[in-house]
Amino acid sequence: MVTKHSQKSSRLGMTKPKPMSFFQNIIKPFKRTSNSGLEDDIERIAALEQKVFSFQVLVSATKDFNPTHKLGQGGFGPVFKGRLPDGRDVAVKKLSQASRQGKNEFVNEAKLLAKVQHRNVVNLWGYCTHGDDKLLVYEYVANESLDKVLFKSNRRSEIDWKQRFEIITGIARGLLYLHEDAPNCIIHRDIKAGNILLDEKWVPKIADFGMARLYQEDATHVNTRVAGTNGYMAPEYVMHGVLSVKADVFSFGVVVLELISGQKNSSFSMRHPDQTLLDWVKPLVSLLSHVPLFPVRAGPKHRLAYKLYKKGRTNEILDTEIAASADPEQVRLCVQIGLLSVQGDPHQRPAMRRIAMLLTRKPGHLEEPERPGVPGSRYGRRRHGPSVTSSVGTLSTPGSSAGSFGSNLKTNTGSNTGSGGVTPASSRTPTRSVGGASSSSDPHGKRPMSY
Ligand SMILES: Nc1ncnc2c1ncn2[C@@H]1O[C@H](COP(=O)(O)OP(=O)(O)OP(=O)(O)O)[C@@H](O)[C@H]1O
Predict the structure, then answer these.
(1) Keyword Nucleotide-binding on this protein (predicted)?
(2) 227: confidence class by pLDDT, cuts 50, 70, 90
(3) Which of 23, 237, 337, 352 could form a disulfide bond with 247, CB atoms 3.0-4.6 angstroms apart?
(4) ipTM exceeding 0.90?
């Protein structure tokens, strides 16, 4: 005998027990033993625990991958919206067949990534292989990606300062989780506004983590897509293929500055990779240039920025659309964090743990920054013994000692092991270099492993 409820569950393909009466719960196991569909049920439950979706379920969820269900076309393939039999909305990513990855390898990677669960990370609910098709099934995130809200619509004002601050904090938490708390340390490698999805409450969720492992390009399909996105990549990664968690910190810093200013950091050229940050900093400096006391040409930019910072004028880089809602102390904190994160020297960038901690502090408790160092002095400072309160944070543009811009924040940068600056992720995942000796971990030598 099958209860009305179990009939419904079966029809919906659900495995989650629905509330039942006390009596029903007691007799349920006995009833099920007499159910001839028991084996099917067990199989289905086992399949779901393994996170395997049948192709047929995904076909009907997406109405046979109907173009009207297409959410977009990413570098790895098209993404479709679907609804599972149990009513859950999903985003199904159909990996393009340029991936050279074998089925078993894909399944192993997907299984591993499906264990990555965090509020600020788009959860991978499962996967599917069917012939040559490889599909990934993600939770559906209702709002658009951050880049669409910030740059591609007139919706910028919909996310006020409070929301932007929460988005910054959420991304920091998600990244901290990926770097230090996930089952395996995951270096995302492609943190950008387009990979931050926003749910209906504007909670940010980091998308596309682990793609380098799920989508391995054929040598004939060299596609730098997997390696990251122009404008967000850390200079040491762009120029030398050196990958560490600090590459993600750099990209995070770019996103933070974009969120604060509402301006996209896009003017990046592969021929002049070290211009990334310069191009970013220029508009900021020009925004600040109207301050009569500190004309742009008066001296090194970092000193100018420091003076402006000391004068409490950091707010002037803020998106005018949201100026009214802004908390100046929080804006200042975020500008500092953004600028610390995009420092040229990866060792100087704070670890995500330190950033997440700074963001949860009451702004009034933040240490006062000291005068910025001059270009070239930062290594000297570090040699003189980093400590918990050591003053670091000299900011320099990638690949160049010119154009330093920023302030000193008493912080631990993750290059040492003082409180708040521990870098277990770094130690779990040594810095790797594309094309260097350590790239032997990547049999194709094209890019570093991401975790
Ligand atoms: N889990 C999801 N929920 C809702 N929409 C999603 C989800 N994942 C992806 N999308 C949407 O699907 C589209 C394609 O996403 P995808 O991540 O594949 O590529 P992209 O971010 O647009 O580009 P790229 O691959 O270059 O990063 C985007 O519009 C994205 O917002």
Answers:
(1) yes
(2) low
(3) 237
(4) yes
